[in-house]
Design goal:
The chain is an all-alpha fold. It has nine helices and no strands. It is a multi-pass membrane protein.
Amino acid sequence: MSALVRRAGAELVGTAFLVMAVVGSGVMASRLSPNDAGLALLENSIATGAALVALIVALQPVSASFNPVVTIVERLLGVIDTRSAAALIAAQFAGGLLGTVVANLMFGLDAVTISAHERTGPGLWLGEVVATVGLLLVVFGTVRSGRADRVAFAVGGYIAAAYWFTSSTSFANPAVTIARTITDTFAGIAPASAPGFILAQLLGGALGLLLVRFLYPTVVSAASAAEKEVIS
C-alpha cells in the first residue's frame, strides 16, 4: 500500500470522526439541553475540541490535517506536492460527508437531511475569516516553531474557544461546512449559506498564509527548538 493511500485514508477517517463529533454532539446537546442554547453550545464545543485532540494525536504520524484550507496552505508552503494535496482534499470532503451520514443514523435520523439553518451576513463571514486565520496561525505556528508534538492540544483548545469568540461558531473548514449541509440539526448549515462561509474560509486561508510566512519565515526543527529552550 502506497504512503499516499495511507495518508488519504487517515484524512478520510479523521475528517469523518471529526464531523461525527461535531454533528453527533450537537444532536446530543440539543436533546439534553433543549431549552438552553448556551449550554448546548458549550457541550458541542467541548466534545469537538476533545475529539480533535484525540484524532490528531492518533493520526498525526500518518496525516492529520482534516481541512482543505490547511492542506492548500501546506501545498503553497511546499510541504506536500500537488498530487498529494488533491488526494488528501478529496478524502477530507468524502470523509466529512460520511461522518454526517453516520452521525445522522446514530441518532435515528434519515441518513441525509438538508439543513434549513441559515447562517449568513457580513458578521458571520468575518467570523469565518477570523476563525480560519487563527486556526492556521495555531497549526503552522506550532509546527514551524518546532513543537509539532503539541499541535493536537493547541488546535483542540483553539477550536473549543473559537466556538465562543467567533460569531460563526468557527466552522473554519470547507469540508466540514459542506458536510454540515446534509444534517438538519443543531450543527447544520443551509446549502445556500455554505458558499459564503467557504469563500470567507479561503480568504482567511490566504491571510493566514501571509501571516505565517511573515512570522515564521523558516522552519525550526524540534531539536534546535529544544536546544534554544535549554540555552535560554
